[in-house]
Amino acid sequence: MLLQLNNIFKWVNSGGQRIFLLKDINLNVEEGEFISIMGPSGSGKSTLLNVIGMLDGFDEGEYHFLHESVHSLKEKHRANLYKEYIGFVFQSYHLLDELTVKENLEMPLLYKKFKGSERKAMVADMLDRFNIVGKKDLFPAQLSGGQQQLVGIARALISSPKLILADEPTGNLNSKQGEEIMELFKQLNDEGVTIIQVTHSEKNAEYGSRIINLLDGRMV
Amino acid sequence: MLKHNIKLFFRNINRNLSSFLINIIGLSTGLACALFIALWVSDELGVDKFHENHDRIYQVAENLQFSDGIQTMVESSAPMAEYLVAQMPEVEYAAATIDPSWFGKHALSVGDHNLKAQGQLVGKDYFNIFSYNLIEGDENQVIADPNSIVISKGLALKLFGTTENVVGRSIEYEKSRQFQVSGIFEDVPANSTVQFDFVLSDKAYKDEAPWNSINTDHWGSTGPQVYLTVKEGTNIDALKVKVAKIRNEINENDLRKSILIPFSEHYLHGTYKNGKQIGGRIEYVELFSMIAILILIIACINFMNLSTARASKRLKEIGVKKAVGAKRKTFLFQFLSESVLMSIMALFVALVTVALLLPHFNTIIGKQLALQFDLNLVLLTLGITFVTSLLAGSYPAIYLSGFNAVTVLKGKLNRSIGELWTRKGLVVVQFALSIILIISVIVVYNQIKFAQNQNLGYNKDNIVYFKAEGKVKEQLPTFLAELKKLPGIKNASSTTHSMIGHNWSTSLEWEGMDPDNETNFQIVGVDYDFIETMDMEIVAGRGFNRAFGDSIGMIFNETAIKAMGLEDPIGTIVAGRIPIVGVVKDFHFKSLHDKVEPLFMAIMPEVNKVMVRIEAGKERDAIKEIHGIYQAFNPGFPFEYEFLDDNYKALYASEQRVATLSKYFAGMAILISCLGLFGLAMFTSERRKKEISVRKVLGQTVTQVTVMLSNEFAKLVLVAILIALPIAYLLANNWLSGFAYHIPLQAWYFLGAGLAALLVAMLTVGSQAIQAANRNPVDGLREE
């Protein structure tokens, strides 16, 4: 068992009314799964992903990650937990414009205790694996969308996470680039990485081993 | 990590060049101002501290009880020095001096070489007390002989062209007496309050008035300065108690009570009221230190405001870094190191600025400061820079690092009310400070203009004066008569004092005097024609006139007559035998800080300042003529003259400097504030891009949008004005109350300053607003 959500509720209070963003979510994820979360706009897909990624909190329920009780952890321990085990891939890539490809890849390692030489080796390895050695000194603005997302995935993978969380990773890409990215995810999943992605596209959801449908914050 | 941060810092500069420039200009201007002030302050604090034993050197002053309080006179009596050494075991050395400002300049000649140099008379241990290092001669011996003279290195070079073998050679003094050089001292440093070129022994004028007052055992005498060093480890408070008793033990009728003042602190703490030290130049030192801090704060506020306003541009960076596990500490470190880097860059710009502008600054403050990096200055500079970077960086660091990863990654930033208020509050503080500075400058400037154009009760223009010495002094009536015959000379006379800075007073008795009347009268000794030469006005009786044989006879000023309570003063007999012959309209004989005091004039034989009124516009020719006749009387004497109005200006030199300096600093403050406002306006129009587009699509005109954007800032400046006005009013009132005669505070000083600030602010913001309002709305709406 990689993670387990029990009766998760998340809400905001607006104008005296309680609006539920997540309602009674129960979810078990095993290592090696490839899950697609689907649903219309505003159904709570991204919120659920953020809760799983521990970037966002919840109001009620229990969350166990690798036998740690996330709901009772302090902020600092939670950060250590996701830093070690989770990698994020964003729809709009979120590469830092001021950094080159190489530096973007290196950035997450700065927040972990790696030596300079180790970091270099890990970055070189990742550049090699994603076939972007030639682009290592370019800035994000000099890359195509597909290439940027490739770098984004490489960045998520560099610290060898157990889980990749991808929020509409192909949303800003054309269909051919999107296909390539999905093939890459498939391949990573085959290598043992657990993946949870949010997507609008039935076709992309097909790559996953399981589909979760959300509607108004509820699993259907 | 540090490398990563530095890299990011420089790449960010590239992307946001305008805000970088605003920051660097603002910070470096602020730092440059602070550095200038720090240089000035450290120089002021160092005055008279170069004496090796400066913390053990004291000066004797006298507290004198008057009906209206205690007056402190920084002078003592000649026997005090000897008494202290003989009777007080705590005292190591003591020496009386006739200080240079009293002793004055004297003509020195070697062969055909004549010049005037500043001298003083000193007691034998003078060089043991003060560290005016002797290059030649022995501290204990150089002034032992009444015929010896100790000269500065500079004077030796001027007179002899060398310092080699000068000891033992003779110098002709006032073309009448020979002195033998017994020693040479290093030139007196600029940060010494006592400035002189040569020193004579206190025995040099054993019998000649007034210089014999340093060589008398008469305890009632006044005039000499008495300096002493106490032994190490002396309990100074106990010694002060003993010193306070001295005069009464010697003469129980002596009204004076001696006090000890630390010599090296006298320069900064030289104002006494009611026997207590209450301030002095230290007030300016504090004022400018305050200004430096204010300007730095204004500059730091810019940095804070721009950094937080620019936050939206860095949201992604913060969000992504948080998502990969960066902690708050990391961001604190990152943003603080950015502000440290920024400050260091600003420091370099500031240092270059200071180096380039230092000569100009020196002209304004009348000092010779150099950018010498001794340990203190380096520490101070680094300290200022470090504090600045912490001050500027702390708020942005705390603010930026506190973002929540999810919200910032969504590109949304809930700007809290508190944050907006903080930013607006900072702008208000900035402008309030600038406005206060502007108002202060206006007030100081007007007061000084007032002082210089004030009707003084006499006409200070076109008066040239010089010292009567040699044959001129011996044959003064003839000399004056010859002078008056010259073309371009309207009138001439002589006096004991030059109308500026006067302190010679006495009490008097007169017919019908109220026995409780303790009025203290200032004495001005004059020659015939003095009142006419100075264009003073006689309001009753007449001026001195040879025809009446007025060599006895006194003329009082109006204040004196009022203080004496005389209804019909003319003819009243004073001091048992002298009739009052006239009343002169009050005239100012001190600076306008002080009220006009009771004063009388009398014909005196020992007057020694020749005052000459010249026809306007003929100064050059007239002085040539005077010089000619002076040389005829005194061949070989260098002729040195002064203009009365120049010296009058010098009375306000320190105020003038404050005015000029604060003018620059106020300019800097408003410049820095406007830079900040400019940056902020830039980001506001960026942030409200979408809103502006929507408004324009819905039909608002460019003008309406411009006004809307400008209004946001106009309101802030208005609030700043409201805060600044009462504070400035209090400050100005307080400063003006130091002048017995001052300008009334006028409304336009305040309104003018407020309007000026508003105008400058609107010009700054307006350009940005117009640009934002003119943008194509489609661009603003497309982005999402």
Automatic annotation (TrEMBL), chain A:
One of its GO terms (molecular function) is transmembrane transporter activity. Keywords: ATP-binding, Nucleotide-binding, Translocase, Transport. SUPFAM superfamilies: P-loop containing nucleoside triphosphate hydrolases (SSF52540). PANTHER family: CELL DIVISION ATP-BINDING PROTEIN FTSE (PTHR42798:SF6), LIPOPROTEIN-RELEASING SYSTEM ATP-BINDING PROTEIN LOLD (PTHR42798). Pfam families: ABC_tran. It comes from the Bacteria. Coiled coil: none annotated. It comes from Flagellimonas hymeniacidonis. One of its GO terms (cellular component) is membrane protein complex. This is ABC transporter ATP-binding protein. Belongs to the ABC transporter superfamily. Macrolide exporter (TC 3.A.1.122) family. Residues 3-220 form the ABC transporter domain. InterPro entries: AAA+_ATPase (IPR003593), ABC_transporter-like_ATP-bd (IPR003439), ABC_transporter-like_CS (IPR017871), MacB-like_ATP-bd (IPR017911), P-loop_NTPase (IPR027417).
UniProtKB/TrEMBL annotation, chain B:
Keywords: Cell membrane, Membrane, Transmembrane, Transmembrane helix. Residues 21-244 form the MacB-like periplasmic core domain. Residues 290-404, 665-777 form the ABC3 transporter permease C-terminal domain. It holds the Pfam family FtsX. The chain crosses the membrane at residues 20-41, 287-306, 331-358, 378-406, 426-445, 664-683, 713-732, 747-765. GO terms for molecular function: transmembrane transporter activity. It comes from the Bacteria. GO terms for cellular component: plasma membrane. It is found in: Cell membrane. It is a multi-pass membrane protein. Its main location: membrane. InterPro entries: ABC3_permease_C (IPR003838), MacB_PCD (IPR025857), Macrolide_Exporter_MacB (IPR050250). PROSITE patterns: PROKAR_LIPOPROTEIN. This is FtsX-like permease family protein. It comes from Flagellimonas hymeniacidonis.
